[in-house]
Amino acid sequence: MKAQSLHGHLDALLLAVLEQGALHGYAIIEALRARSDGSLDLPTGTIYPALRRLERAGHVISSWSTVNGRERRTYELTDSGRRALAGERDGWHRFSATVGRFLGSDTPPSAPA
Amino acid sequence: MKAQSLHGHLDALLLAVLEQGALHGYAIIEALRARSDGSLDLPTGTIYPALRRLERAGHVISSWSTVNGRERRTYELTDSGRRALAGERDGWHRFSATVGRFLGSDTPPSAPA
DNA sequence: CTTCATGCGTAGATAGACTACGTGTCGGTT
DNA sequence: AACCGACACGTAGTCTATCTACGCATGAAG
Q: How many domains does chain B have?
């Protein structure tokens, strides 16, 4: 999948993966890849700047730790981030409903949690 | 809605509106606005270049006509365009399913045609 | 005659993700 | 011991697609 199409929806995805628990950058990339069956294989040059944007915006906070001699920066959602996520979720639903109206809204209902 | 988020999906939308019949540029804009309840209000500077892209790609063909002393350029889907639309549709479904898996895939099923 | 809706079009700005680098550790292979 | 791949972070510059802001022209309405 062309991640090109992610334009404007990446922040929402990042907030969403962090909703289920704090992760460090590399793990976020793997989480996105895993939960999308490999469709979303985003390069570090996309993820790290995005995370810093989110941190500057106050939606996440980061903290360093050392694991196996490797420096990790772990990101965690803030309250502001949780609110932002709710907004992004809403925006996504409106967006996908609108586009779906043109391209066929029959998105096969993937099994919910 | 920020049309910003359309990035990469605009061509699909254009092909989709043309699927139901040939239209000229201005009418395409109105069709998008109408069928989206005003959510998609795209400026001419977005539409016209996009249509020319599609024409260069062979997905649409245009023809001039004069109506009420006004020059109109009417666009029509080609076979290639129809095939492209099928692909875009497929791509959209995969995309929205993937993103939906993270943001909640519960897109309310809007009534089909 | 001025203004608004219709209708086409281009040039330059802007935004957001991408490519291509660069740094360093750890573990396994040769 | 040298090397290479996985882990883990990060930045600079490019690229693509949409947007903003124009410009031109006709017809109808005030």
A: 1
From the list B40, B99, B110, which residue is nearest A105 (CB)?
Answer: B110
Edge-to-edge strand ranges of the sheet holding A60-67? A23-24, A70-77, A60-67
What's the domain range around A21? 3-89
The answer to whether residue B106 sits within a structural domain is no
Closest Cβ opposite residue A110 in set B91, B95, B100: B100
Q: How far in angstroms lies nucleotide D26's C1' from the CA of residue B47?
A: 21
Pairs of CB atoms within 8 A across A/B = 119
User: Is residue B109 over pLDDT 70?
Assistant: no
Shortest CA to C1' contact from A64: nucleotide: D9
pLDDT at A112: 42
Question: What is the CATH classification number for the domain harbouring A19?
Answer: 1.10.10.10
pLDDT band at A110 (very low <50, low <70, confident <90, very high): very low
Q: Cα–Cα distance between A19 and A22 in angstroms, integer?
A: 8
* CA separation for the pair A48, A31 (Å, rounded): 15
Whether B111 has a pLDDT exceeding 60, the answer reads no
Compute the average pLDDT of residues B103-109. 62
Average predicted confidence (pLDDT) for chain B: 90
